[in-house]
Each structure stands twice: as C-alpha cells, then as structure tokens.
Amino acid sequence: MPVRSLFMTSSNSRIEPPRLGEPYLLTPGPLTTSYAVKEAMLKDWGSWDDDFRAMTREVRSSLLALLGEGADDFDCVPMQGSGSFSVEAMLASFIPRDGKALVLANGAYGQRSALTLEYLDRAHVVLDKGDYLPPRGEEVARILAEDPDISHVVAIHCETSSGILNPVEEISEVTYAAGRKLLIDSMSAFGAVELKPTEIRYEAMVSSANKCIEGVPGFGFIVARKSELEAAKGNSHSLSLDVHAQWAHMNKTGQWRFTPPTHVVAAFIEALRAHAAEGGVPGRGGRYTRNRDVMVSGMRELGFETLLDNRWLSPIIVTFFCPADEKFVFDQFYNLMKSKGFIIYPGKLTVVDSFRVGCIGQMDEDVMRRVVTAAKESLEEMGVTSAAPPLRALEERAKLAA
Ligand SMILES: Cc1ncc(COP(=O)(O)O)c(C=O)c1O
Fold it and tell me: What's residue 11's pLDDT?
C-alpha cells in the first residue's frame, strides 16, 4: 500500500495534505509544511554566490516588512541554529555585561531565558508565575520601581508550554514608563500575532524559521532597533552568537559569517511568499484562529476542558486537561491519534496532567474537525466514557479567574 493512502480521508480542505502521507504535526514547530516549501530544498546554493546573497536580502527585508510602520528603525539578523540559539544571541548581545534583567516567567520558555542568563553570567531576577499565570503590568511596574538596577525586561509573547498569549502590551507600557528596555521572545507567535512597533514598544524580538512562517528548522532571526544593534558591539560572550558581528558582516558582505543553512533559507523564501499570499500576519493569524476555534469547540463538546479560558487562549497551541477517567492513558491516546494521522503534544504543566494540540502549520478548519473526530474515536477505543478533567484541574484553573 503506498504510504500516502494511510491517512487520506475525504476532505474539503483547501490545503493539500502531507503528500507523503506522514501524520499532521499538531505541535508548535517543527510543523506541517507545504510540499512547495519542501520542494524548494531540492536545489543546492553556493553560500557566497550572488543568488544566495539575494535570497538572504529577501529574507531580511520580508521579515522586517511584517513589522509594518516603524520598520525602518529596525533591522533583521538571521542566526544559524534553533530558536534557543537566537534567544541566547539576543540576551547576550543586547543586555550589557553590567546590565540586569527581569525575566517574566510563566512556563518553560521563560525559565529557559532565566537559565540562559545564568549561563551568560548576567545579573537577573525572575518573576515566576508558575505554570501559566500571566505576568501583569502592575506587578512588573512594582518590581521595576523597587529595583533601579534592572535595565531590561524579558517577556515571552506566546508561552508555548501552556499556550497562553501573554499581555506584552501592558508589559511594554510599564517597562518604558519606568525607563527600561523590553526584549521579547516571540518565537511561536511572530507571523501570526501582530508585534507592531507602533503599538508595542520593544528593542528586540526573536522568532525562528519553523514556526508561524511555516518554514523548516535551521535558523532563527533577531529583529532589533538599529540603535541597539549599533550599541551591542562587544557585549556578546560568544563569537558565533554575536548579533552585532553577524549584522555588521551581513550588511558589509551580504553573507552570513559562518556556513548558512542554504536549503532552509530557500525553503523559508517559499514559506514567506505563501505567508504574503495568505494575507500576511492578519491572514495567517486568521486561519490559525479559526483552526483553534473549531478544534476547541469540538473538544469541549466531547467533554474536554482547556487550561485557559478564552481570554488567554493563543491561536498557536492549546492545553487540555487529561480526563479523570482511569481508562485514559496519555501514551495510548497519543498512539491512537497518531494512527489516525495526527501527532499531538504532551503537556508541560507540573501540577496536573495535560496535553497540547497545536493550531499552526499547513492545516485548516476541515483538518481540525477531523482531529476532533479522531479524538472522539480514540476515547471510544480506550473505553473512556467521560473526557471531564479531575476536580484538581478545575481548582487549578480557578486560580486564573481569581
Ligand atoms: C516561546 C519559545 N521560546 C523558545 C523556544 C525554543 O526554540 P527551539 O526549540 O527552536 O530552540 C520555543 C520553542 O518552541 C518557544 O516556543
């Protein structure tokens, strides 16, 4: 049997299903990419050649254009490696060695930024809100007022470990009202959620190729104010992750300093064109929002409950509580979902069992309806009669409402 027939069901989807029949990745990246994106990797490119330099220019200018008005004050610096490499590059390059950061943590990626600063030996304090509670403007303002040494605030845009969309607008307001600077990890949100400098002030942000632009993994990018890029000279602890050096070299030669992921860049250009054709950030964000709404309402109809109420749900990924029914075993549920063509994601909450379903990548509402059907059938096959979570999970959730 050809592999592709495994998961082919009748579909009204306008997006072509994975052509080789692999399961959809309902994960926050790497995610399901289009065939055109994968096909773009079939050609080899010389990293020093004019054609590839033009490709690098296109990547940088297209990403900058996503900022909209005010983009002229910024520049875009692609950086080899996974997203964490770009986060580390941003923190090391823009927080001076005698600076001090306030990290706003409500999940794994906030914690990772704090750990990165520890490795970098940069002074920092952490506002730790636990698994998901959002850092709010008033508490950030209070900490900044009490500690004049803090020079930078580090915020996570969508904290992918719970799926919460953090209130970066109010965080930005209080940060600049206190005369400090904001750095944003927008890894999983950029490209689907607006981050316009005319609406949210910040100095730098990072994201990566394999998130909402729908490229494949291999590089990240830092978008920073030109004034900060100029001032970053000499800050970084690292040769390869020095954003200033990468920026200066790219501007001078059009090349990356060290071997670039040429095929990934070619794929990313294809992904950027599809992003523009879909209507840019509003178009992409609109499809992901519809994906989320269809999937969440279907899962709720089955009896599943989300960790977050609607006000905090991102269009990127959603955390569901595992059902209390003792016949529900996550590993079994995972395998059943995979056998039906959908790879879901384990949860990252520390207090209650959970799992996550991503809304990003090459899929639409029709696919999300099939995800819900697959979840229903998987529960039936496991003999689970109720998807309702344990009381403890609902008590945990009440903290957010309080
Ligand atoms: C918000 C956020 N920050 C950082 C990262 C780390 O990126 P990577 O796993 O590519 O290193 C991720 C990955 O999903 C993320 O969602």
Answer: 54
Residue 5, pLDDT > 90, answer no
Confidence class for position 190, pLDDT limits 50, 70, 90: very high
Q: Give the distance (Å) from ligand 1 centre to CA of residue 185.
A: 8
Q: Best mutation site among 82, 185, 187, 216 for ligand 1, i.e. most ligand atoms within 8 A of its Cβ? A: 187
Find the residues whose C-beta lies inside 6 A of ligand 1: 28-29, 82-84, 87, 109, 156, 160, 185, 187-188, 208
Tens of pLDDT along 298-340?
Answer: 999 999 999 999 999 999 999 999 999 999 999 999 999 999 9
Mean predicted lDDT score pLDDT of the chain? 95
Report the separation in Å between the CA atom of 157 and the middle of ligand 1, taken as the mean of its atom positions: 11
Residue 26 C-alpha to ligand 1 middle, in angstroms? Answer: 15
Pick the residue whose CA is nearest to atom 15 on ligand 1.
187
Q: How far is the CA of 388 from the centre of ligand 1 (A)?
A: 30
pLDDT at position 398 is 87
HEC string for the chain: CCHHHCCCCCCCCCCCCCCCCCCEECCCCCCCCCHHHHHHHHCCCCCCCHHHHHHHHHHHHHHHHCCCCCHHHEEEEEEECCHHHHHHHHHHHHCCCCCEEEEEECCHHHHHHHHHHHHHCCEEEEEECCCCCCCCHHHHHHHHHHCCCCCEEEEECEECCCCEECCHHHHHHHHHHCCCEEEEECCCCECCECCCCCCCCCCEEEEECCCCCCCCCCEEEEEEEHHHHHHCCCCCCCCCCCHHHHHHHHHHHCCCCCCCCHHHHHHHHHHHHHHHHCCHHHHHHHHHHHHHHHHHHHHHHHCCCECCCHHHECCCEEEEECCCCCCCCHHHHHHHHHHCCEECEECCCCCCCEEEEECCCCCCHHHHHHHHHHHHHHHHHHCCCCCCCCHHHHHHHHHHHC
